[in-house]
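<purpose> Linking amino acid order to shape
<body> The protein record starts here
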Amino acid sequence: MKEVLIATNNEGKKKDFEALFHPLGIEVFTLKDLETPIDVEETGVTFEENAILKAETVSLLLGKAVIADDSGLEIDALDGAPGVYSARYAGNNSTDDDNIDKALGALEEVSEPYRTARFRCVLAIAGPTMETTVFSGSCEGMITTERQGENGFGYDPIFYVPAQNRTMAELTAKEKSEISHRGAALKKLQTALSTMIDEAGGENENYRNE
């Protein structure tokens, strides 16, 4: 089985990637599976900059294939916020609930037609013998006035998908992968994925802690 490292410590993202990669016969590892911790400061001002920064930095350190994702929520009524600051919208140590509370508070006076938003994801794949390649995807939706659903993570409980008549947090993992921003980005990567991972050094890489 091929293996690929995802440059994240986020367990929610790991589950999303597992749902997307396992059907392709690719086992997912994250930075938490490494013996030596790696922390890449996200200094970019766009999703693209952060994804590339994480992928290239970790790939250079390990000499192996790495996929990095930077993603977040863009709310039109808030001029695209929280954007690249989605994970720390309410502060550097904020929880998902903290971030949701801040977003709902900022939208308190905004009526339903104007609560449009989208999840955006940029995937960057980097490796020692390949040029870094970027793929992006998005999912359009609306911000609810209260939490709905228990699945997913992040802003999923307040992100309503009109085509599904449910929030992201009310979808199963399979349903989410089929319509999510991360799923859309991966679909653009899929046709070249196996070749890329082979070229970048991604088979039997042994990312596990020994």
Remarks:
- The two ends are 18 Å apart (CA to CA).
- Helices lie at 11-21, 47-62, 96-106, 173-179, 181-200.
- DSSP finds five helices and seven strands in the chain.
- The chain has one domain: 2-200.
